[in-house]
Amino acid sequence: MNRPTHAKAAAPAIELRDVSKEYKDVRALDGVSLSLAGNRIYGLLGRNGAGKTTLMSVLTGQGFHSSGEVAVLGGNPYENDRVLSRICFIRESQKYPEDFTPLQAFRAAALFFEHWNADYALQLAKEFQLPLKRRIKKLSRGQLSAVGVVIGLASRAEVTFFDEPYLGLDAVARQIFYDRLLEDFAAHPRTIILSSHLIDEVANLLEHVILIDRGRIVLDDDAESIRGSAVTVAGAASKVEPFVAGRTVLHRETLGSLASVTVEAVLTDAERRQAADLGLEIAPVSLQQLVVRKTLAAAEEDSATAAATVMEVSR
Amino acid sequence: MNRVINVARMQLINKWIFLGIPAIIMAGAFLVTLAIWAMIPDTGAAKYAGSGQAVMWYFMALGIQSLTLTFPFSQAMSVSRRTFYLGTVGLFAVVALAISVLYYGLGLIETATGGWGMNGQMYALGWIAAEAGIVQILFYFISMVTLFMIGFWFATVYKRWQATGMLVASIGTAAALLGLVALIMWQGWGPQVGQWFAAQTPLTVAGWAALFCTVLAAGSYLTLRRATP
Amino acid sequence: MIDESRPIFLQIAERIENDIVEATLAEEAQVPSTNEFAAFYRINPATAAKGVNRLVEDGILYKRRGIGMFVAAGARDRLRARRREEFARQYVQPLVQEARKLGIGIKQLTDMIESTYTATQDTTEGSVAQ
């Protein structure tokens, strides 16, 4: 893949500095700082309600943040037509004008996205078997998602957000989406932000992973560095524990005298040999597992801090 | 500027909302009124009908619709709130102007044909028809824009603060009106107020409406700027 | 096809190496483009590119500007030599370890290897001759 190396590429496509967003009693975003270089496929991962949609809303000027700074394509997106015209964000719960058909929605999109490709939109709609002349409000959940996916892909916007785009799509349609995304991205490199809680399905598509949990960034790294950044060491507890001592433990399970401990570590060959000599089994950790472990570990840390605070107060 | 025009084009993708339904209301009201007049025996007195104004009320509903249904979509189309506002209100102003001119034209025909041959008054209502053409058009235009802005403003309030906002806005408006009436009664200003109303001409009414409309327009815009889809 | 728990670019590089060692990809033959790899394995194009570039840096593949990637002359021999070096550590060591665990003696082990080697010789040689 060729990354365009014009002057603009030096500036990050998206930059957030200490961005927070408070609703009445929740912090939907909590001191988020990110810097995303352009022309990559980013995964915005996290549980439901972790803050993915809030973050994307702020990045597209559709929502508001309480504090911090946001820059997309070099400018604040809020009420900024110069920036907005190069962004596309169809929400998971996107509303369409009453009585609009998919075809009419595409015609509207053609008015606003300068790189819009109408033929491509129709070709995609055909692949998703989207009834073009049925009213959108009468479409199934999957077809509704497909309308958003088609607009997102055919907009060819410099920064395109996909908000849980697979909801209601069957396995075939999801595969079509992933294939078309990769294919079109290869032909027209741009910045894609794919929000998802189905990590296994999208993991291979991603170049970079951002994990958000309760409004905080828990992980922000290249997918390839994450793969293989943790291992599970299993065997006799008496041998596992000294081996993992001093490493960051993400998860620990014990069964009688056996232990299985997931640690953040890239083992050297010497360490692997040592483990083998000790009769320990080393198992790699998938991106999905790592994300689950990281999320849970962050939650645990939080409740531990909270518990400590409570104890402080009650003392 | 281009994007503002494109917002208007987007609002027109579904031609029914801005063009089809108003046309049907106007044609329907006209035909029904004629039919009713035809059934009333001619006594020599003029027959009045308010049905010609029916389409004006539709514009209040239109103000609500164009915001609640199209605003969230316009956000997905990467349109700024300002652009959406200008495009939508601008399109409406053009449609309202066209209908105003049409009203004036129909009023002329009405007068020329002796009230559609039935001595009826639907468009050229006495109080307004006596004014100069330009004043008539201005009056119709501002009336429609005002109704549209009322609907649009209520919709922005709803969009931003949901049902609570609507409730507060409705109760607030009602309370303000009641308070005003109470004040007039309490102060014994009734006769003066009556005289004041009697002294109004279409032109001054249009002036007051324009003022009110400007306040609503500014209020809607400021509310919309902080609304989320 | 792709093992989710190891860096994918390494797996892509290994697959290409395998194809070269097995002579599925002949020397001087053109290698699929990174986008073709990405589409085929359903992986990010940048990841595929990283795998291919690793082989370029290694001198296993070379770039022809504007045309594509090709297998370098002598790549197969170099890969085979490298794999032979790793053979003991990658295959023999765990084999011996497991044999010890099970109480299989050295004589018994070499017998097993010998008989397996002879039994599969025909098929292996067949594929090499291709």
Automatic annotation (TrEMBL), chain A:
Domain of life: Bacteria
GO molecular function, one term: ATP binding
Keywords associated with the record: ATP-binding, Nucleotide-binding
InterPro entries named in the record: AAA+_ATPase (IPR003593), ABC_transporter-like_ATP-bd (IPR003439), P-loop_NTPase (IPR027417)
Record domain ABC transporter: where: 14-239
ATP-binding recorded as keyword: yes
PANTHER family, sorted: ABC TRANSPORTER, ATP-BINDING PROTEIN, SKFA PEPTIDE EXPORT ATP-BINDING PROTEIN SKFE
Protein name, per record: ABC transporter ATP-binding protein
Automatic annotation (TrEMBL), chain B:
Source organism, top-level taxon: Bacteria
Record has Calcium as a keyword: no
Keywords on record: Membrane, Transmembrane, Transmembrane helix
Membrane-crossing residue ranges in chain numbering: 16-40, 55-73, 85-106, 126-154, 166-186, 206-224
Protein name: ABC transporter permease
Taxonomic placement: Bacteria, Bacillati, Actinomycetota, Actinomycetes, Micrococcales
TrEMBL record, chain C:
Keywords: DNA-binding, Transcription, Transcription regulation
Xref: Pfam families: GntR (PF00392)
CDD domains, alphabetized: WHTH_GntR
Secretion signal span: none
PROSITE patterns the UniProt entry points to: HTH_GNTR
Start and end residues of each HTH gntR-type domain: 6-74
PANTHER family according to UniProt: GNTR-FAMILY TRANSCRIPTIONAL REGULATOR, HTH-TYPE TRANSCRIPTIONAL REPRESSOR YTRA
Name this polypeptide is given: GntR family transcriptional regulator
Species annotation: Arthrobacter hankyongi
